Amino acid sequence: MPELPEVETVRQTLRKKVLNKTIKSIDILYDKIIKTDLNLFKTRLINQTIREIERYGKYLLFRFDDDYLISHLRMEGKYLLRTKDKEIEKHTHIIFQFTDDKELRYHDVRKFGTMHLKPHDEVFQDEPLAKLGIEPFDKTFNLKYLKNKLNNKRKIKSSLLDQTIVTGLGNIYVNEVLFLANIHPKRISHTLSDDEIKRIIMATISVLNKAIELGGSTIRSYYSDDNITGRFQNELYVHNRIDEPCYICGETIKKIKVCGRGTYYCPVCQKI
Ligand SMILES: [Zn+2]
Q1: pLDDT, tens digit, for every residue of 40-90?
Q2: What's the CA-to-centroid distance between 250 and ligand 1, angstroms?
């Protein structure tokens, strides 16, 4: 599943291609992706221009003149820019035709992706963004905020995966953040010291920045667009490195399940 850095990579790539393009018509081949009334979705978007593409956590926010199209790629969603004469690939579900000869096609093998359309001033009302926590790059993602949110008896891994606490972190990056912060994934959240919480914040920012710089991780079938391959998977310290030596201490990386998720850690660098 794409996490924040992968979605950011998609955002940066897409915006270069589709900014200032105006929608002429929309073909909906599979309508369950669209969570707004279909008629409204079509009639409102036609004749609107894409002014910017923003991101909140793992959501892409296409800012049109009057509305936001809020898109979540889930497992395998991706956007492909094609000329209109190009054959429509299998698993293409939504086609946004522009006023030029191009169209933006939403492709999703698993069909788990979602799209919501909302007027600008309602973008954070209700689903899907209303309940999300803050962005890791927000200035308010600090010791005070996180300490307050970690005042619970859940394992730290579970707290960091909770999108209502901080939005955008998924399994890969939580594994990496906990390694860099030297914290065992099963530590109970409220037992963390201020120093440990600060280490989590610093590790989060540094892991995400590095991943964005390298275009994210390409793991399994995820990719952002035709020719883009993330390079962050070559930089992973623990994720997917079971039985390999820790780069810091040489101990063998272990894999356990925490909250049902594959969790990689170093038993020496991350003592319980
Ligand atoms: Zn180690």
Answers
A1: 999 999 999 999 999 999 999 999 999 999 999 998 898 999 999 999 999
A2: 6
The strand order across the sheet containing 59-63 reads: 52-56, 59-63, 67-72, 114-119
Delimit the domains of the chain by residue range: 4-122, 143-265
Residue 58 is among the residues annotated as catalytic for this protein: yes
4-122, what's its fold?
N-terminal domain of MutM-like DNA repair proteins (3.20.190)
261 is catalytic: yes
| Unique residue bearing structure tokens 């004749």 | 47
User: Could you confirm whether domain 143-265 is CATH 1.10.260.40?
Assistant: no
Residue 269: pLDDT band with limits 50, 70, 90: very high
For 215-248, the DSSP string reads T----TT--SSTT----GGGG-SSTT-TTSBPTT
Q: Is the CB of residue 159 less than 8 Å from the CB of residue 148? A: no
Q: For the chain, what is the radius of gyration of the CA atoms? A: 20
Cis peptide before 128 (omega within 30 of 0): yes
Please tell me the pTM assigned to this model: 0.86
Which positions ≥6 away from 87 have C-beta within 8 Å? none
In the annotation, is 5 catalytic? no
pLDDT tier at 229, thresholds 50, 70, 90: low
- The pair of structure tokens assigned to 225 is 């667009």
Name the catalytic one among 21, 44, 58, 105: 58
24: annotated active-site residue: no
Distance in angstroms (rounded) separating the CA atoms of residues 76 and 91 = 10
